[in-house]
Amino acid sequence: MADFEKLEPDSTVYRTLLESTKAIPWKIDWDSKQFAYIGPQIEALLGWAPASWQTVGDWASRMHPQDREWVLNFCVAQSQAGVDHEADYRALTRDGHYVWIRDVVHVVRRADGSVDSLIGFMFDISERKQTEQKLASLQKELEELSFRDGLTGVANRRRFDALMELEWSNARRNRQPLSLLMIDIDYFKQYNDCYGHLEGDACLKRVAWLLASAATRARDLLARFGGEEFVLLLPETDESASLKLAARCRDLILAEQIPHAQSAVGPVLTISVGAATCIPAHADELRGFLDGVDKRLYRAKQQGRDCIVAAS
């Protein structure tokens, strides 16, 4: 560590300047891979005394196992190429915790171009990393909210449109069946007129929860399509299975016995369902498939509601 004087001619002045900063200066001799110097600030940050930093091996062993390989490979490659560089990694403290470090490295070369030594600074960037992680978490939350219906909590139209296109492409590529249920709450305008919009909102939430409970697979998607309409996207689901699920949705709503005094169907809330299944061919268009499901829902309404229409 006494070789610090080789860094600059006026060692006392530069030592004072370097050791008064929060950045931790260090120097490594390239040929021996030994530390020529490391600032005393390292002990305050990580708990390891400066005298314990003897070789590059000490530096590597105090690095998080998940960071060690790529940091070592990166830093060695950059140093051998004579390129100044920096790396972020987690450093082990003496009490067993980890601190985020940014190492900024300058490569010192001899007159013949060979590497003489590495000089650098370690910076504690834990607070910055925590902020970045919080921002990333917030960004993820905002993205999730942008795909969620604000009232019912299920996926919204935007989310459905994106996944519908994806599953359509997957079904066409893999020659797998894709099913879709389009669901409408019968006489919902009359429900709102009778019970008020607050009760109408509560009804939509209740129906959404019931429909979501019917679809149990991770890839099945329930989304609010708009107003009182919902859609159930069912990848790799044949017609028979989709119709069983449609019947389950209808039965769940009926079993809930939600009063609807203004329904022309009966005294409780009911739903109408349009259903379709397709193994998309290359020439098939998604828009045509969606239009077909919408027409089947319209036919269910024409036929008196509280029913499922699957045939064209």
Automatic annotation (TrEMBL):
It comes from the Bacteria. Residues 176-312 form the GGDEF domain. It holds the Pfam family PAS_3. The lineage of its organism: Bacteria, Pseudomonadati, Pseudomonadota, Gammaproteobacteria, Lysobacterales. Gene3D superfamilies: 3.30.70.270, PAS domain. NCBIfam families: GGDEF, sensory_box. GO terms for cellular component: plasma membrane. InterPro entries: Diguanylate_Cyclase, GGDEF_dom, Nucleotide_cyclase, PAC, PAS, PAS-assoc_C, PAS-like_dom_sf, PAS_fold_3. Its cofactor is Mg(2+). It is an enzyme of class 2 (transferase). SUPFAM superfamilies: Nucleotide cyclase, PYP-like sensor domain (PAS domain). This is diguanylate cyclase. It catalyses: 2 GTP = 3',3'-c-di-GMP + 2 diphosphate. GO terms for molecular function: diguanylate cyclase activity.
